[in-house]
């Protein structure tokens, strides 16, 4: 492949990766949108009061409702509830809705004919009757809004300064009271303080499954269909791209995507959505992953390390006790030692070390050995009376020095040639191997004597017990946060060196 073809192939791969990244980002955003819709659906019914009026009650419902700026409060209802109430099957409660319609009708009649007119008296009679019925039947109970009814009754008792809610409503819905007070203390009080609480009540039919009617699966179905098709497509691609990966393995490859398909526990979709946002580079999860892994290591590394160290030492102690370690068994036939290559590793290592010493180390230190031998021989010869006499004779004063130099050179050379020759010569090599073998056998035989073996085992067991106690003690007192800090510094240094090498 020439350079032009490599450039074309590289640009093609980059183009594919770029389009693949755009696809991942698009699917991640769609999954995020679906997750937001799911979370909104899960929180809608508990938070419907907020979406209904765009305002909240404070001080347990005794204070005036505070409008929130996110929704318009020009109308009593919000477009959010108008759109989403049908999805959850929510309908106005007929009892409280008729009660509010009567109040609206009373306001219109009062404006036209006055509060003491006959039409107003009939409506007020109906309101008193429905108030008593409201207290008796509690239409708020089915929607789980009994607390709202309690607030209504408490507000009315406080407003009318009555101990009984029935008496408070009976006196409030009378033409004498409404005519004797300002509108702010009469019908407008109901409109501002009590009507928002009445409007929070609703009715929700029960389906054949025994659960409240819910049409959210209809909204969720297009997303589930899209994620299902993508899941099958990814399964096919993964099974064909990687050798030995079947469909089941490919499905398990991206198991988290299956959470986007289940019709229950939809809140679990936060897992695949988070992973997709990280894979599409829309969300940087590296710092989160680092913190999670650091916390895991910090909390479990100490226990794991202690368990591993203690188990290894216990196994070694058990092997020593059973005599299954090399050189610690009285008989080779009884030990459960597994030989995987039919080679005596101890002899092979000793042979290798001896060859390295003879052929590589001794030639390098031969001058130093000669100098050491020369010094020792010279010191020895100077102590002899005959050599002292020769030094005094004319012409023979340097004879001792020449003799020691020659003797040292010949001794080292001869010794080196003898040792190397024993390896190169078949007979010498055989004798050397025989010597090594007999030396090892003699050493093992002496070490495996009952008194020596027991003493060695006892010492080793005590040594390992001391290591176990002292090492685990240090592990428990060691600051793992400091270890993690050192690890991070090493990683940063390695990254800096790698960047410097690339540049």
If you had to describe this structure to a student in words, what would you say it looks like?
By secondary structure, the protein is mainly α. Helices cover about 70% and strands about 0% of the residues. It is built from 19 helices and 4 strands. It has helices at about 5-45, 50-55, 80-85, 95-115, 120-135, 145-160, 165-170, 175-180, 185-200, 215-240, 245-255, 270-280, 285-320, 345-380, 385-390, 400-425, 425-445, 450-475, 480-500; strands at about 55, 65, 90, 200-205. The strands form 2 sheets. Strands 1-2 form a two-stranded antiparallel ribbon. Strands 3-4 form a two-stranded antiparallel ribbon. The chain is elongated, with a radius of gyration of 48 Å. Mean pLDDT is about 75; it is low at about 55-75 and about 325-335.
Q: Helices, strands, pairings?
A:
Layout: H1 3-44, H2 48-53, E1 55-56, E2 66-67, H3 79-84, E3 91-92, H4 94-113, H5 118-137, H6 146-160, H7 165-172, H8 175-180, H9 187-199, E4 202-203, H10 216-241, H11 247-253, H12 270-279, H13 286-322, H14 345-382, H15 385-392, H16 399-424, H17 426-447, H18 450-477, H19 480-502
Antiparallel strand pairs: 1-2, 3-4
Helix pairs in contact: 1-10, 1-12, 4-5, 4-9, 5-7, 6-7, 6-9, 10-11, 13-18, 14-16, 16-17
């Amino acid at each position: 492949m020439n350079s032009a073809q490599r450039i074309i192939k590289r640009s093609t791969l980059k183009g594919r990766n770029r389009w693949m990244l755009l696809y991942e980002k698009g699917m991640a955003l769609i999954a995020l949108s679906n997750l937001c819709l799911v979370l909104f659906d899960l929180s809608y019914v508990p938070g419907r009061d907020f979406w209904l009026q765009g305002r909240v009650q404070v001080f347990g419902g005794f204070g005036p409702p505070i409008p929130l700026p996110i929704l318009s409060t020009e109308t009593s209802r919000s477009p959010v509830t108008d759109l989403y109430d049908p999805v959850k099957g929510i309908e106005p409660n007929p009892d409280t809705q008729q009660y509010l319609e009567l109040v609206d009708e009373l306001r219109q009649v009062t404006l036209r004919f006055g509060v003491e007119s006959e039409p107003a008296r009939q409506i007020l009679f109906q309101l008193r009757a429905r108030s008593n019925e409201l207290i008796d039947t509690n239409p708020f109970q089915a929607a789980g809004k009994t607390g709202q009814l309690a607030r209504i009754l408490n507000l009315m008792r406080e407003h009318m300064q009555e101990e009984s809610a029935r008496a408070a409503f009976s006196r409030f819905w009378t033409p004498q009271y409404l005519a004797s007070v300002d509108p702010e203390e009469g019908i407008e009080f109901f409109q501002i303080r009590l009507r928002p609480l009445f409007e929070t009540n609703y009715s929700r039919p029960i389906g054949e499954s025994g659960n409240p009617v819910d049409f959210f699966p209809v909204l969720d179905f297009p997303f589930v269909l899209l994620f299902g098709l993508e899941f099958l497509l990814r399964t096919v691609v993964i099974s064909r791209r990687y050798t030995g990966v079947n469909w089941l393995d490919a499905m398990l490859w991206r198991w988290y995507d299956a959470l986007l398909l289940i019709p229950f526990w939809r809140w679990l979709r936060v897992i695949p959505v988070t992973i997709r946002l990280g894979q599409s580079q829309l969300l940087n999860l590296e710092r989160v992953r680092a913190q999670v892994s650091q916390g895991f290591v910090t909390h479990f590394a100490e226990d794991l390390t202690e368990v591993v160290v203690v188990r290894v030492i216990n196994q070694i102690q058990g092997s020593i006790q059973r005599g299954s370690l090399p050189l610690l068994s009285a008989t080779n036939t009884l030990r459960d030692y597994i030989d995987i290559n039919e080679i005596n590793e101890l002899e092979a290592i000793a042979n290798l070390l001896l060859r390295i010493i003879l052929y590589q180390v001794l030639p390098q230190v031969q001058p130093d050995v000669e100098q050491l031998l020369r010094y020792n021989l010279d010191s020895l010869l100077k102590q002899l009376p005959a050599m002292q006499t020769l030094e005094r004779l004319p012409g023979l004063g340097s004879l001792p020095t020449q003799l020691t130099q020659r003797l040292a050179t010949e001794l080292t050379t001869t010794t080196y040639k003898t040792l190397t020759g024993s390896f190169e010569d078949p007979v010498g090599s055989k004798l050397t191997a025989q010597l090594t073998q007999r030396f090892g056998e003699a050493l093992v035989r002496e070490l495996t004597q009952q008194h020596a073996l027991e003493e060695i085992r006892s010492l080793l067991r005590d040594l390992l017990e001391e290591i176990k106690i002292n090492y685990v003690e240090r592990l428990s007192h060691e600051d793992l946060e400091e270890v993690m800090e050192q690890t991070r510094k090493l990683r940063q240094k390695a990254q800096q060196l790698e960047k410097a090498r690339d540049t």
